[in-house]
Specification:
The structure is a single chain. The chain is an alpha+beta fold. It is built from 23 helices and 16 strands. It has helices at 3-35, 41-59, 62-65, 85-94, 132-137, 150-164, 194-203, 218-238, 390-394, 448-467, 472-487, 516-525, 542-550, 553-560, 576-589, 602-612, 615-624, 627-630, 642-648, 652-660, 675-684, 689-708, 713-717, and strands at 72-78, 105-114, 117-126, 140-146, 174-179, 207-210, 356-363, 371-378, 383-387, 400-403, 407-410, 430-435, 440-444, 505-507, 512-514, 532-534. A hairpin with a 2-residue loop joins strand 2 and strand 3. It is globular, with a radius of gyration of 29 Å. ANK repeats lie at residues 638-670. This is Centaurin-gamma-1A.
Length: 718
């Protein structure tokens, strides 16, 4: 850009800012004129006071009041309206989770301390397609997408492409952020982790996965990006004096999904040619190496350029107040979602017809114990669901469910059959559903007849569930999980060591599948290296299944085969001797593992990987850790071990792997709490029966490990 062009652009920006600034007061004066027309003087006075406060805030904004030496950090955030960026910012600013997205974006300010220096952080959450003004304003950029949305990933790539047309983005510090908020059993992960890792490598930036629900990595993302801004500014201002920016980030920051019950699904593959193929069709797991990129604008493929034209809501950016927003000043952050809903008739979207349905009152489990009206359905498969409204039920949103197999129904104050009871008229028509874990759901009907009808129907479904569950339910669940391990976990369609199709043997502690020939070689290594099981012939515990679902061949090989050093991997037709040599190199000699950061202890790296839910880094640490590393506390003051942290987040797979590597479940933290205490505390916060069952499985693993003892845990837990 020439000096003349730069001067012209600056002049245009200055004129636009003056025009924006001067347009505010006429609008405020117009509001005062309208207030004079309000007949209710009390309301008019209140409105006037609010407008005066707004005017005072505007004229005393920071450009007129803050000293010129107050340092500012300009952080921009881009992503689709369903990317989770609003919840990410809200969690960082308030420490709480906000489910609703704000399509308009937002502007926020926060004081941050970096190296004991105070900075004013200006956060600009862009509500649409980024324009040139936004691109020029930022000091750093967060690229946010949802891990359960292919569209969200495509949109953030398209947005970044657009910014590259306004500015050389290679000079801008940035972080790629994958959001886990919407991932659950019924809404699995769509974006395979190799794709954002590859994108992050090409962008030459870190990649984190966050969860605003639990706060996973949220604080870290904002701290890191602020640190990068300061390093970038320092390097730019003081390079001539020999001062260099300090890179403090831990290498190998490749988080994967923390929720251990999830499994990776097959992605949609891009059909158009592109400069960067963001599908994973031909990608190799050894994509940790950074590519040499001449121009960041060439990073994102052409197949994403038309995304913004396909989404009308992104055509105009809704930024700082303009005439467009004159009548829309209220942020959508506090309003109900405007997402399009499916309208498939009264029964909802393709679901079974309930045995019984209708409105009941439900008592809240929170401290206020409020009674709220719920639309309740009883299903033939032994589930009772409740939604806030019929509309939510029809659209299958915001629902909760209770599994009836292991519950009982009680009526408060009702005497047992055969005993004398009073004839006093009932004041309420309540009944309770109580689980084996002593969790209680309180409901109330409109009359005694309706209550008795619900109780009778629920008891019938409980009986049916018990009659049909004698081994069949468990076998069906295990069969489904086995199907997921074979067909849904990434890379498990071929042997982990030779690539033979349809492997049906597994290594529990490695979390991989292999063919029968390679399984025999694994047995020869010894159970301390690889514990072999048959997928079809052996029984599997919940902890074992969770490990197999959380890892898989792709994740394992991205660690165990990180750097082959020119050695040729055998195939299914190779000689047994060649396969055995390869397997011993890989798991016994560990010659293909990636390097570890020498400046950070293995124990600290392990703790970091557990906190981030980073299964890949976690696997690498386990491959190198000693007993002392496995049981290392966070600090001298904070005595939580990696197992405490895994239990605090309910990560069954990580907890099981730590126990197999001789983590002591009886260790106490600095407040005298055991790992079981963390699981029980987490369980009390859950309002979902399936999540509670996961916590019960985790408690069983801990109890068995505690009974067996740490010295025997390797043999007893396998």
């Amino acid at each position: 850009m020439t000096t003349e062009q730069s001067g012209h652009d600056h002049s245009l920006a200055i004129r636009q800012e003056i025009q924006r600034f001067e347009s505010v007061h006429p609008s405020i004066y117009a509001i005062y004129d309208l207030i004079d027309l309000v007949s209710d003087t009390h309301i008019a006075k209140q409105i006037r006071e609010h407008v005066v406060a707004i005017e005072d805030s505007f004229v005393n904004s920071h450009e007129w009041t803050l000293a010129r030496d107050v340092p500012e950090l300009h952080l921009g955030i881009i992503g689709s309206s369903d990317s989770g960026k609003s919840a990410l910012v809200h969690r960082y600013l308030t420490g709480s989770f906000m489910h609703e997205e704000s399509p308009e974006g937002g502007r926020f300010k926060k004081e941050v301390f970096i190296n004991d220096q105070s900075y004013l952080l200006l956060i600009r959450d862009e509500g649409g397609v980024p324009e040139s003004q936004f691109s020029a304003w930022i000091d750093a950029l967060l690229l946010v997408f949802s891990l359960e949305s292919e569209e969200s990933f495509s949109i953030v790539c398209s947005f970044y492409n657009r910014m590259c047309s306004f500015r050389n983005m290679s000079e801008v510090p940035k972080i790629l952020v994958g959001v886990q908020d919407s991932i659950n059993d019924s809404n699995p992960r769509v974006i395979k982790d190799i794709r954002p890792r590859k994108l992050a490598c090409d962008l030459r930036c870190p990649y984190y996965e966050t969860c605003a629900v639990y706060g996973l990595n949220v604080e870290r993302v904002f701290q890191d990006v602020c640190q990068k801004i300061i390093q970038h500014i320092s390097a730019k201002h003081y390079r001539c004096n020999g001062q260099q920016a300090i890179e403090n980030e831990i290498k190998y920051p490749v988080p994967v999904i923390a929720k251990n019950t999830q499994f990776l699904t097959k992605e949609m593959e891009a059909t158009n040619s592109s400069k960067l193929n963001v599908s994973d069709k031909d990608e190799d797991t050894r994509s940790f190496h950074h590519s040499s990129i001449q121009n960041d604008s060439a990073i994102i493929g052409d197949n994403f350029h038309n995304t913004q034209n396909q989404h009308g809501d992104f055509r105009s950016s809704i930024l700082t107040p303009t005439t467009i927003r004159k009548f829309r000043r209220k942020s959508n952050i506090f309003t109900p979602s405007k997402k399009e809903k499916y309208n498939m008739g009264e029964m909802g979207v393709g679901r079974e017809i309930p045995v019984k349905q209708g409105y009941l009152f439900k008592r809240s489990s929170k401290s206020l114990k409020e009674w709220k009206k719920k639309y309740v359905t009883l299903l033939e498969d032994g589930r009772l669901t409740y939604h806030s409204s019929l509309h939510d039920y029809m659209n299958d949103t915001n629902g909760k469910e209770i599994l009836l197999q292991y519950v009982t129904v009680k009526v408060p104050g009702k005497t047992p059959k055969g005993s004398k009871s009073s004839n006093a008229q009932e004041d309420s028509f309540e009944f309770s559903i109580i689980s084996l874990e002593n969790k209680t759901w309180h409901f109330e009907a409109n009359n005694a007849e309706d209550r008795d009808s619900w109780i009778s129907a629920i008891e019938q479904q409980i009986l049916s569930s018990l009659q049909n569950s004698d081994g069949d339910k468990k076998n069906e669940t295990d069969a489904f999980k086995m199907h997921c391990i074979k067909n849904k976990v990434s890379g498990n369609d071929a042997c982990v060591d030779c690539g033979a199709a349809n492997p049906d043997w597994a290594s529990l502690n490695l979390g991989v599948l292999m063919c029968i020939e390679c399984s025999g070689i694994h047995r020869n290594l010894g159970s301390h290296i690889s514990k072999v099981r048959s997928l079809d012939l052996d029984d599997w515990s919940a902890g074992q299944l969770s490990v197999m679902l959380a890892l898989g061949n792709d994740i394992a090989n991205s660690v165990w085969e990180y750097c082959l050093n020119g050695k040729q991997k055998p195939n299914s037709d190779s000689l047994r001797e060649e396969k055995e040599q390869w397997i011993r190199w890989k798991y016994e000699d560990k010659i293909f593992l990636p390097p570890i950061n020498p400046n950070i202890s293995l124990g600290k790296l392990l703790i970091d990987s557990v906190c981030r839910g980073d299964m890949r880094a976690f696997t690498l640490c386990l491959a190198r850790c000693s007993y002392e590393d496995i049981n290392m506390p966070v600090s001298m003051e904070d005595l939580r071990t990696p197992l405490h942290l895994a239990c605090a987040t309910g990560n069954l797979a990580m907890a099981q792997l730590l126990i197999w590597h001789k983590a002591n479940p009886q260790n106490l933290d600095h407040e005298g709490r055991t790992c079981m205490s963390y699981v029980r505390a987490l369980e009390r916060t859950l309002d979902n029966s399936s999540d509670s069952m996961e916590m019960q499985k985790l408690l069983e693993v801990l109890e068995q490990a505690s009974v067996s003892g740490v010295d025997d845990v390797e043999t007893s837990q396998y």
